[in-house]
Write the structure tokens for this entry.
Amino acid sequence: MTHSIAWANHSLPDFFSSFLIATVPDAAPGAESASSSLVLAAVLLTLIVIYAASKIGAEICTRINLPAVLGELVGGVVVGISALHLIVFPEGGFEAADSLVISFLQLTANISSTTATAVFQSESEVISVLAELGVVILLFEVGLESDLKELLKVGPQATVVAVVGVAAPFIAGTLGLVALFGVPLIPAIFAGAALTATSIGITSRVLTELGKLNTTEGQIILGAAVLDDVLGIIVLAVVAGLAKTGEIEIGNVVYLIVSAAVFLIGAILVGRLLNPYFVVLINKMKTRGELLLTSLVFAFILSYIGGAIRLEAILGSFAAGLVLAETEKQEDLQKQLSPIADMLVPIFFVTVGAKTDLGVLNPTNPVNQEGLILAIFLIIIAIIGKLITGLTVFGKPGINRLAVGIGMIPRGEVGLVFVSVGAASGTLNKATEAAIIMMVIVTTFVAPPLLRLVFQDKPQAIGEVETKS
Amino acid sequence: MTHSIAWANHSLPDFFSSFLIATVPDAAPGAESASSSLVLAAVLLTLIVIYAASKIGAEICTRINLPAVLGELVGGVVVGISALHLIVFPEGGFEAADSLVISFLQLTANISSTTATAVFQSESEVISVLAELGVVILLFEVGLESDLKELLKVGPQATVVAVVGVAAPFIAGTLGLVALFGVPLIPAIFAGAALTATSIGITSRVLTELGKLNTTEGQIILGAAVLDDVLGIIVLAVVAGLAKTGEIEIGNVVYLIVSAAVFLIGAILVGRLLNPYFVVLINKMKTRGELLLTSLVFAFILSYIGGAIRLEAILGSFAAGLVLAETEKQEDLQKQLSPIADMLVPIFFVTVGAKTDLGVLNPTNPVNQEGLILAIFLIIIAIIGKLITGLTVFGKPGINRLAVGIGMIPRGEVGLVFVSVGAASGTLNKATEAAIIMMVIVTTFVAPPLLRLVFQDKPQAIGEVETKS
């Protein structure tokens, strides 16, 4: 049997694409598309930059007695949009040509600028998801290292800290902007809302680094940061609804509160119920990675639900960690999770740094000059509004109230989300936007060293420094 | 100062996008785009499916005395394009609506089909890159577990095995198709080229699983599989050039041979030179993850170079593993890499399975009936052509020649690349394409259990079963 007719049936474009693929051979799956191995190359290059930046930053900071996470954030700033432009993202209005990593790839792999644009898009998607997976894993690890019973014990205190830490800066910020600076109500409310955030990522990472996660202060901060996250989602929904319709959508607010409560309580109750079966299942498994993959499936299911009901993926992985911390597998799992966290978590902190635009601190820009006074006001409110939460802690004599307050200060990535939502809504003018970003930057970068300082001030903390893995 | 003019300056689309973001709030970076948290959700869901498929498959296979990797491949087939359609990829001509994972996300997160298409694209990109990272990590781990000196000792034998394993099936396959079946020369050459492949991923994974990586047989197979990979890249370039211009591009061939030699030898020489500084650097570092991240940077740099010079990323990570295996950090690094491999490697094997189209085995399709006789011929050549390589091993009395031959049989993901390049070139008709895919499937799925069998036949192997991590 011959197929002479079919063989003649090929077209020129097919030949061209065949050539394209053949010049970039690749044995991995997905090699059907020419750009697959290029995307991998771009991702590898970006990870090299991220790891180098994170390690250099962390090592320098550790040597001058600052927390490693600050070094990772600063390392991110150095390689990001504010300085070297090695790592930039399309959401920031950047193009492939703006990214030094993509330009380097273009140079070494000899690709067209159209291909470079496609690779830039895909690479950014992949790095963003890896960063988000990083913070999912971080919160899973934090949950795993926490003691649910201890956390529930400080629940009332954490709730008061969270509520005061949201209400005080929001009210003071919004009213202050309207009364003192004549800012219209809606943008003032947006700025006030941005003041409510607490970066659960930065806070929990610093606490882990200092070995203070399982102190009473640490558990109050952690519990309050988690609740703050939930409250932040509600505030964001309310503010965005206000900007859109001028009204507060009560139904939406009630939905978020109920679903958050049902989700967090339900995940923990159901998880505790399933715990014994989980251990039995793992003990019956015979192949490599049985504990890790089963745990990740559990964590990812809760993360998915957390995301799907419009809460957050990290709340799911945190709950999963809390539940699995109560099993006999806790120690083993923690050991196995540690290298994965080492690999993925820095991607998160470096990209947070890389996306931070220090350009708002440039005093030669008139917009920034205009925003500077607003920024100073916002920074003062941001710090005082969270510091006073330490004073609300009741029934815990001898507690380090300053540490609790400082632990709530960093706005980090959560603050940046508020800024981007505000900017997208069109209700923020440039000066106010710049002022909010300045507030986020200052609180994010000032809190980790301060937290280290106040924890080291306490006599019992002396000698407790970060341990090498 | 008031900003009444600026505040009025917002448009409806902005409001809409603000609402979109606000209803899917997310504290992670990249939250600027509405789809970011949706992409994360889709990736989480896909990973849940992948891990479940890999573990269920592996556990079943282990219980019926088959290699775990076969279970991961079959698990992938079950959730992939051949059966459940949970995991499909756009390259296979599938759309968002074809993916059950995306449909489920659409249902639970209430998103439009336009958004679903975008999420499907991004999710597929991310999973493909994670799979490729998985095989990069797998080869890094394999290199780390190998002994460079042992590998070099069996170098001559591995070279002969690789060359014979490429030449014999290529010549027999091409000539047979032309002489016995009247297939025109160019498509016959493509089919012959597909016969030359050896899946380094499957081969090395099975050897590791059986604890046979560091036997003489294991090192010969590994060395030959690596060389086969390089030869395969050259064959692919030659064949693609032939299909395009009808001529063999000698310059291109020489470039690939020289660059492969320079790269592999250079990486190992330079790596050995830098080894002492690597250890000193790591010992000086004080922050968590210092060994892992420094090693990953080294592996990723070599992987990037491997990809950039049109070889392969996995050759770079394998070389990096070989070099670091000679340092005193080898054992520590292996321990830390193990959970990362547990997490990423199954993504590779499950997606290879998911992309395998068992539809070519459907006997009711006339194209398949037409291809069946071709397929039987190709499968016979594919198996015999590699089996005879075991007979070429010289100077190693008492060696298990059958094991060496069987170790070279699986075509796996490398075979699929040849198929896709052939299909894209337009020179393959449907029946021949189906026949090649059948050959790839049979060799891929038959080799792991056979390899286990022949290794277990030898008395010294009794009692050596897969160890739990």
